[in-house]
Write a structure and sequence with these properties.
Blueprint lengths: L3 H14 L12 H8 L3 H13 L3 E4 L3 E4 L5 E3 L6 H7 L4 E12 L2 H7 L6 E11 L2 E10 L17 H8 L2 E12 L2 H7 L6 E11 L10 E11 L4 E3 L5
Parallel strand pairs: 3-10
Antiparallel strand pairs: 1-2, 4-5, 5-6, 6-9, 7-8, 8-9
Helix pairs in contact: 1-3, 2-3
Amino acid sequence: MQPRYRIIKTAILDAIENGVMKPGIQVPSENQLAQQHGVSRMTARRALSEMVDEGILMRSQGIGTFVSDSRPMSSMLEIKSIRDEIERRGHRYTNEILVLETAPASDAISQRLAVDVGEPVFHSIIVHCENNLPVQYEDRWVNPAWINDYLDKDFKAQTANFYLNQVAPLSQADHSVEAVIVEKDIAQALLIKPKEPCLKITRRTFSRGTGNENGSAAVVSHAVLFHPGSRYRLGGHLEF
């Protein structure tokens, strides 16, 4: 049996996907949801809060909670597994592994991973899908000095991001976002038109749990993530 708060989330998701609740429409208050579903106000608050965190709803202080833009939204302030994001929305996650190899580090990659030019490093390209529709093209380079079994993992069962965070817990990251027109092969993999704009997220992650003798943070991976602009957003809620 589903927890009570998930029943509320499912009901709201169904209403959104069926067109009953459209973007910009105000959803019932915590009190109204509690009465409708016979639960406590705290349970209703958890359902709404999780949906705000997932980008499905947006909260306006002192006014209420509203249905967001139909595109999923990822937090700019947190690094989450794309699989977790998709499944928390109640949608089906799948992926397609395009590249999983060892390759010599180019000048650019050597600088980003802090390795010598030509040193063997791990490289993966994975397309992540939500309900069979591509939402992220992940081009990732990994430093083998800290993650020596990367190529042996089943990334159909778990995402690269999830695995890396298990074996080398994230301690810090460099993070940038820009709008770009992608190369033809990336557009084809994302099933978008050649000139359709994408969000490009460049991220370099560090960990202190990777065996550094002096305890300093070491570079674990460098990833470039492309999202079709028509299917994805970045945002979040800030309090001061």
